[in-house]
Amino acid sequence: MDETLKDSKKLISDIQTQYTRLSKGQKLIAQYILNNYDKVAFMTACKLGETVGVSESTVVRFANALGYSGYPKLQAALQELIKNKLTTVQRVEMANDYSDENTILNKILKGDIDNIRETLEEIDGEAFQEAISRLLKARKIYILGMRTSFVVAQYLGFYLGIILDNVHTVRMDMGDAFEQIVRIGEDDVVIAFSFPRYSKKSFQLVKYAKEKGAHVISITDSLFAPIASESDNTLIVKSNMASFVDSLVPAMSVANALAVAVGMKEKEDIKEHFDDLEQMWDKYGMFE
User: Fold this and answer.
1) CB of 22 closer than 8 Å to CB of 44
2) How big is the CA angle at 178 (ends 168 and 230), to the nearest 5 degrees?
């Protein structure tokens, strides 16, 4: 398991346990983190040192004393710990270094690039292949995502619906979500998207599907995400937050990959389907 995922839940208790063994400067860091861990999660080592009154090297040694290979790993563990606890207001306050429009543009795009890079490096290729295999064998495919995650679910549902004829995207504007999956069974597959702040309804739907014997594929940002505990295979997608707006770009990329991979397995069938679509679009003047 990733060092960040493994350690984030016990980080605060580790700091408390190790406190008496720390140097004077490291104790100052520990005290500050215990009181302000939501702020420290987004501070550089240099900034944390300046705030506390110690050197940057002392901050790095503090991270090492807690068993981390470097400060970035400690910072990532703090981010993992708090990201589902931050309110929208706190996220806005967190973005105080977005000084102008050019800064915002650069930070957001670079953040999305970093999220995609990390996703590519860490995503489980075998889990991805298993997901494709399950989708191709499924009696019915249910795709769900609540709140902003619904955008990605709808996107994937649109493209899988062109390729396959057994896809249902669970919608919030078409009655209760449970009513839409009540017939789910052992031969069905659920693809669930869930990112902080994790929707309780998403977890309830996934838990219900699992109890009915369906195969659950979760696309989320952490093995600590509630839906991951009910999933048969999990695709971890990095979604480090950028203020009050969630970064869903990597999730879109993984959705793209799923749709293309399924499409390539059904290449001959979809070529015929697309030919029919082109004729219909031409007949009814769909495009300029």
Assistant:
1) no
2) 85
pLDDT of 261 higher than 60 = yes
Q: What is the pLDDT of residue 257?
A: 95
pLDDT at residue number 185: 94
DSSP secondary structure string, the chain?
A: --HHHHHHTTHHHHHHHHGGGS-HHHHHHHHHHHHHHHHHTT--HHHHHHHHTS-HHHHHHHHHHTT-SSHHHHHHHHHHHHTTT--HHHHHHHTTT--SHHHHHHHHHHHHHHHHHHHHHHS-HHHHHHHHHHHHH-S-EEEEE-TTHHHHHHHHHHHHHHH-S-EEE--TTSS-HHHHHTT--TT-EEEEEE-SSPPHHHHHHHHHHHHTT-EEEEEES-TTSGGGGG-SEEEE-----BTTB---HHHHHHHHHHHHHHHHHTHHHHHHHHHHHHHHHHHTT---
- Binned at pLDDT 50, 70 and 90, residue 1 comes out as very low
Which residues of the chain are in CATH 3.40.50.10490 domains?
A: 120-283
The CATH topology of domain 3-82 is Arc Repressor Mutant, subunit A (1.10.10)
